[in-house]
Specification:
Layout: E1 8-9, H1 18-21, H2 23-33, E2 41-44, H3 46-53, H4 60-65, E3 74-80, E4 91-94, H5 98-107, H6 110-128, H7 133-138, H8 142-153, H9 161-177, H10 179-187, E5 196-202, E6 213-220, E7 227-235, H11 241-244, H12 261-264, H13 266-283, E8 287-294, E9 297-305, H14 310-322, H15 328-333, H16 337-342, E10 347-348, E11 356-359, E12 361-364, E13 367-373, H17 376-384, E14 389-393, H18 401-406, E15 409-412, H19 420-428, E16 432-434, E17 440-442, E18 447-449, E19 455-457, E20 461-465, E21 470-473, E22 478-479, H20 485-497, E23 501-505, H21 509-517, E24 523-527, H22 535-546, H23 550-574, E25 579-583, H24 597-607, H25 611-621, H26 633-638, H27 640-659, E26 665-670, H28 676-697, E27 703-709, H29 712-716, H30 718-721, E28 727-730, H31 732-740, H32 748-756, H33 773-787, E29 792-795, H34 803-811, E30 816-819, H35 824-833
Parallel strand pairs: 13-14, 14-15, 15-16, 23-24, 23-30, 24-25, 25-26, 26-27, 27-28, 28-29, 29-30
Antiparallel strand pairs: 1-2, 2-5, 3-4, 3-5, 6-7, 6-8, 8-9, 10-22, 11-21, 12-16, 13-20, 17-18, 18-19, 20-21
Helix pairs in contact: 3-9, 5-6, 6-8, 14-20, 17-32, 20-35, 21-23, 22-23, 23-27, 24-25, 27-28, 34-35
This protein binds phosphoenolpyruvate and magnesium ion.
Magnesium ion (MG) is lined by residues 671, 710, 731, 733-734.
Family: Belongs to the PEP-utilizing enzyme family.
Organism: Jannaschia pagri
Function: Catalyzes the reversible phosphorylation of pyruvate and phosphate.
């Protein structure tokens, strides 16, 4: 293979590659091929920049001689392989010296020459030679600045362009190798050996007589992705000046708020619009274009993928596909599955009561309630317990990103709309309020003082409204988001492509309604215990638990029956035509009992029993290891009447819902199975209940009975278990817990240490452990299919919504995954992507 030249002029035919010269160099070549007015540019590949960092400079005399301009002024910009890997900032006006100053004074005027020279000396001193900023900011003319430089450096200000370029290239090459730059790009997914390219470009001066200036334009709204010309232009300015001085800059399109480029230079404006259209068609992307106008003539300096928020990225990809610029499959691939999840921002219910605790900057939209936490480890612990939390920090730094991933919202005492917290939260689609006035966060005391003097501590609940910038007391009800056309398109294109089902884990009518809105293929897991948390039902449930004998227990169950029947009737109606998988009661009974003295007292009163009796009954129900104790099917075997009641409620509900016109598809699922006999026993009883209801109602009842595979033994014995099960649904939450022997409720405490030390690559409760748990999935599914080739295979743990697990399940031939309703769109998109 031929060595890459040490630098290459970018021409339409030059060998420029993103993997060697960086994406900026490649993009500039595309703009040149489109015959856009791009100033002459030379690209330095990664290899050259690496050599520069090691002290080997290419022949800069030859490089400079490629440019044909008098006087020669150059800019240098970084060009990393992926734009979001960053890189050192641009250096402009290289070549300014006494001679260029004199020349420019004669041609463009003294003021412009002074401005350019002063600006260059400042940036050379501060950004390249790393001198203190203050004395250079005080220097008001180039002579003073040059004197300051010479005093600080004890050397003359370099007059030769090659010497200046030498220093600039060296400083940029070294900056890329610095530790903080390395950490930042690695956080964006850059490999350890990611290279930096540089582009050296002839300056197109946005200063001079006539209409001269510079600006930045994009053709879509960065928040919504809707077509809209946005950006700024500033006369007698360079680089991104117009964006840095927005109040002094002009609007681009005619605007009642002030003068615009369109009014000032309608022809150039039209030309820019054309550039945008050309970029969209040819680069197949919405671009942000940096431009200069030199005496009325447009120059295109650079174009980058337009920065965009979650909603915009979906809208842009969908619009490009609708316009036939990219295929639909590519549009789907361009949307990170997590992004689609972020579109689903909840908003505060406008009718809800709200007490404002503090106000700050509305830094990232959406609303969320949760427990206050003050550090990443606690946020991650909350996530592993599925407890929503709000990360509260004085301000955030890269160390907090893990915690932000785990949190439901972020609140900071300091910062504004572009602070670290705001930017990261918008990227993650998390509601965020920054710069909350009057808050004082104490990380040490794990508390936050409110403007009114009150203190909130870790574990207290608050609500963040990132759309209004308000911090609200307690958990304020929220409303579902509005989903627009692009979202619907992406969902329907995903449905066309995917070949694995996506169901929802839904326990309530609200969950099921949301799931239906997202077009699920059914309910894959209805956790019936969640139907007993309503206070009225809880009392009856407690009576059932406290029953002294079978007849007392039956009396309580008879009261629970109609409640369950009503729930199921509603679910069946709502999900008409689609399967509804109802899981029989799973958790240990003591979970339904209160623990503190107050709760025990109230329970004794409600049950009209002596407190001592209630206490001793509660104590008797306590287990040393409840997650491995009397729960799941063990409950069904030891107290069969509970499952019988649930089965009756299901069948009676099916009859009622069918009578109301619903097409009911019943699936009943048994949790925590370890042996075939458990399934046989429960199955026999359920069939007896079905026959009973059939006889009583005269209606035929059809149902499928399945098993949750969530113990390693169930996976190992899936062959014999599937003889009695129509479907096997892998509950990867418990299966992960039991495969690792790692409590799902406690792992958060040390998971960060485990992941940081590289013991586990990821938290296995969030990212399916394909090596270990995955092997049990493969083994269980193969054994199940061997005995019963038509057995339905599914995954219904939290992993069901994660793109990696979906890919895994699809390859393993699973029929569907089931996840929480809000993850359904993510799962559908990931399922479609896994087929492309
Ligand atoms: C599981 O264990 O994966 C599961 C889906 O059940 P639960 O989370 O209710 O234990
Ligand atoms: Mg489970």
């Amino acid at each position: 293979m031929l060595d890459t030249p040490r630098f290459t002029e970018i021409t339409p035919t030059a060998d420029i590659r993103a993997a060697r010269h960086g994406s900026r160099a490649k993009c500039l070549q595309r703009l040149i091929r489109m015959e856009l007015p791009v100033p002459q540019t030379v690209a330095l590949p990664f290899t050259t920049v690496r050599e520069i960092a090691e002290g080997q400079m290419p022949d800069l005399g030859t490089l400079v001689s490629l440019f044909d301009m008098e006087p020669l002024l150059l800019s240098v910009r970084s060009s990393s392989e992926a734009t979001d890997w960053g890189g050192p900032g641009a250096v402009l006006n290289i070549g300014m010296n006494d001679e260029a100053h004199a020349w420019l004074s004669n041609t463009l005027g003294h003021a412009i020459a002074d401005k350019l020279y002063l600006r260059f000396i400042r940036s050379f001193a501060i950004e390249v030679m790393r001198l203190d900023e203050a004395p250079f900011n005080e220097a008001e003319d180039p002579v003073a600045a040059r004197d300051t430089y010479e005093e600080e450096m004890d050397a003359p200000f370099p007059q030769d362009i090659a010497d200046q370029l030498d220093a600039v290239l060296r400083s940029m090459a070294r900056a890329w190798e610095g530790t903080s730059a390395r950490l930042l790009r690695q956080a964006q997914g850059a490999p350890a050996d990611a290279g930096l390219g540089l582009v050296v470009q002839r300056m197109a001066l946005g200063m001079g007589p006539g209409q001269s200036g510079s600006g930045v334009v994009q053709f879509v709204n960065p928040a919504t992705g809707e077509p809209q010309v946005t950006g700024r232009y500033m006369g007698q300015a360079l680089g991104r000046d117009a964006l840095k001085n927005r109040d002094k800059a002009l609007y681009l399109t005619s605007d009642p708020r002030g003068p615009s480029l369109q009014d000032l230079l309608p022809d150039v404006y039209q030309e820019l619009i054309q550039v945008g259209g050309q970029c969209r068609d040819r680069l197949r992307e919405e671009m942000q274009v940096e431009f200069t106008i030199a005496q009325g003539r447009l120059a295109v300096l650079d174009a980058v993928r337009c920065p965009r928020e979650a909603r915009a990225s979906v809208a842009i990809a969908a619009a490009l596909a609708r316009d036939g610029i990219i295929p639909r499959s590519e549009a789907l691939l361009r949307i990170a599955p997590a992004t689609i999840g972020r579109l689903l921002h909840r908003q505060i219910d406008a009718t809800a009561d709200r007490t404002v605790l503090a106000r700050g900057v509305a830094a990232s939209p959406g609303a969320a309630s949760g427990k206050i936490v003050f550090d990443s480890a606690t946020a991650q612990a909350c996530l592993s317990r599925n407890e929503p939390c709000i990360l509260v920090r004085r301000e955030t730094s890269p160390e907090d990103v893990r915690g932000m991933h785990a949190a439901d919202a972020v609140l900071t005492e300091r910062g504004g709309s572009t602070s670290h917290a705001a930017v990261i939260a918008r990227g993650l689609g998390l509601p965020c309020v920054t710069g909350a006035t009057g808050l004082t966060v104490s990380h040490r005391r794990k508390s936050v003082r409110l403007p009114d003097g009150r203190r909130l501590s870790e574990g207290d609940t608050m609500t963040i409204d990132g759309s209004s910038g308000e911090v609200l007391e307690g958990a304020v009800p929220t409303q579902e988001p509005m989903l627009d056309g692009a979202f619907a398109d992406v969902m329907s294109w995903s449905d066309d492509l995917r070949d694995i089902g996506v169901r929802a884990n839904a326990d309530t009518v609200a969950d099921a309604t949301l799931a239906r809105t997202f077009g699920v293929d059914g309910i894959g897991l209805c956790r019936t215990e969640h139907m007993f948390f309503d206070p009225a039902r809880l009392t009856v449930m407690r009576e059932m638990i406290f029953a002294e004998d079978a007849s007392a227990r039956q009396a309580a169950l008879d009261r629970l029956l109609p409640m369950q029947r009503d729930d199921f009737t509603e679910l069946f109606q709502l999900m008409s035509g689609l399967p509804v998988t109802i899981r029989l009661l799973d958790p240990p009974l003591h979970e339904f009992l209160p623990s503190g003295p107050e709760g025990l007292g109230a329970l004794a009163a409600a049950l009209d029993r002596p407190l001592s009796e209630v206490k001793s009954r509660v104590a008797a129900l306590q287990e040393y290891n409840p997650m491995l104790g009397m729960r799941g099917v063990r409950l069904g075997i030891a107290m069969p009447e509970i499952y019988e009641m649930q089965a009756r409620a299901i069948f009676e509900a099916a009859v009622a819902a069918s009578g109301l016109g619903a097409d009911v598809k019943i699936e009943i699922m048994i949790p925590l199975v370890t042996a075939r006999r458990e399934v046989e026993l429960v199955k026999r009883r359920i069939e007896a209940v079905a026959s009973g209801v059939q006889a009583e109602t005269g209606k035929d009842l059809d149902f499928r009975l399945g098993v949750m595979v969530e113990t390693p033994r169930a996976a190992l014995r899936a062959g014999e278990i599937s003889e009695t099960a129509a479907f096997l649904s892998f509950g990867t939450n418990d299966l992960t817990q039991m495969t690792y022997g790692l409590s799902r409720d406690d792992a958060g405490r040390f998971m960060s240490a485990y992941v940081n030390e590289g013991v586990y690559p990821e938290d296995p409760f969030q990212t399916l452990d394909v090596d270990g748990v995955g092997e049990l999935l493969l083994l269980g599914s193969a054994r199940g299919r061997q005995t019963r080739p038509d057995v339905t295979l599914a995954l219904c743990g939290e992993h069901g919504g994660s793109p990696e697990s979906i890919r895994f399940c699809r390859l393993a031939g699973f029929d569907y995954v089931s996840c929480s309703p809000f993850r359904v769109p993510v799962a559908k998109l990931a399922a479609a992507q896994s087929t492309i």
